[in-house]
Write a structure and sequence with these properties.
The protein is α+β, with helices and mostly antiparallel strands and 280 residues long. Helix content is 42%, strand content 17%. It has 11 helices and 10 strands. The protein has helices at residues 94-98, 108-112, 122-137, 142-159, 174-184, 192-198, 203-214, 218-236, 241-247, 253-264, 268-274, and strands spanning 4-5, 15-20, 30-33, 37-42, 48-52, 55-59, 63-67, 73-77, 87-92, 116-119. Helix 3 (122-137) packs antiparallel against helix 4 and helix 9 (241-247) crosses helix 10 (253-264). The model has no long low-confidence stretch (mean pLDDT 88).
């Protein structure tokens, strides 16, 4: 299974709410990892295949899933012929969580109980869905969004005690740290050799473990990360393309254009015109 790097929070944004209704059962949009948290909510009694920490779990009821930064996760319908794939997703980072006190939000949930499925009963599902709808309706009012976010998290934690939560595998696998390292060095010439030295592991083991968990090579992952970063700057800033090329670690604007066109089929100028972040 292939997992793609995606960043859903543009520069200077620490919270984003989305209600996804597009049909993508054959090619689901939730096989990814990113540098921020994700709170995913599915409100139907339909079978889903959920990947957490490299482990596949089948869920057949409404649930909330919290994913930590750089965790490898996936959500898709078990029956690819089913077209009812409505879901709600919240993206946020540590800056957003830091704005809450422990009395308002159980922060330990994110630091200790992420990468976890919280299954809901029918009655609990009705409450959580109402809170999500209220949050989305208040999308233009940040304080209200924060209040509904806290209400959602507190409700889910209260509804689903630790013994009823579902998790598999281990979030401590070193590939998660490798993905974070690639992201933090996205504007450098990081490669498999430098990573194997950094993590004190043989190149053969690194390549084998990385393909097992991420589904593609380190080289392709580095390219994806650099493209996403460049796309973010193209779409969310007014910087000139030559400045973006320099920030992203390219020796020249010409090489940046060639790299971008070869890997996306589009020019940087064409991507800038789309103004659609998180869809690379």
């Amino acid at each position: 299974m292939h997992f793609q790097f995606r960043s859903f929070l543009p520069e200077n944004t620490n919270f984003r709410a989305m209600h996804k209704t597009q049909i993508s059962a054959a090619s689901p949009d939730h096989h990814d990892y990113h540098p921020h948290y994700e709170l995913y909510y599915f409100d139907k009694f339909i079978k889903q295949d959920v990947v957490i920490n490299g482990q596949l779990i089948c869920v057949d009821k409404p649930c909330v899933i919290i994913s930590a930064p750089f965790s490898i996760h996936g959500m898709s319908l078990t029956d690819a012929t089913t077209t009812d794939f409505e879901r709600y997703v919240l993206y946020f980072d540590d800056r957003f969580l830091a704005s809450f006190s422990d009395t308002l939000l159980p922060l330990s949930v994110f630091h200790k109980s992420s990468n976890c499925i919280y299954p809901l009963t029918r009655e609990q599902n009705e409450t959580v869905k109402l809170l999500f709808e209220l949050l989305l309706s208040a999308s233009e009012h940040y304080p209200e969004c924060c209040a509904y976010f806290a209400a959602i998290v507190n409700s889910v934690v209260r509804f689903v005690p630790p013994e009823k939560r579902i998790t598999k595998g281990s979030a401590s696998h070193y590939i998660v740290d490798v993905l974070k390292y690639i992201y933090e060095n996205k504007n450098t010439s990081v490669n498999a050799d430098t990573i194997s030295e950094q993590f004190h592991v043989s190149r053969a083991k690194l390549d084998r473990d990385f393909r097992k968990f991420v589904g593609q090579s380190i080289h392709k992952t580095v390219i994806d990360c650099r493209l996403n970063y460049a796309s973010e700057l193209l779409i969310s800033t007014d910087m000139q393309i030559r400045e973006i090329a320099s920030i992203c670690g390219f020796e020249s604007e010409y090489y940046f254009y060639a790299f971008f066109k070869r890997n996306t089929g589009k020019t940087p100028s064409a991507v800038r015109k789309t103004k659609t972040f998180g869809q690379m």
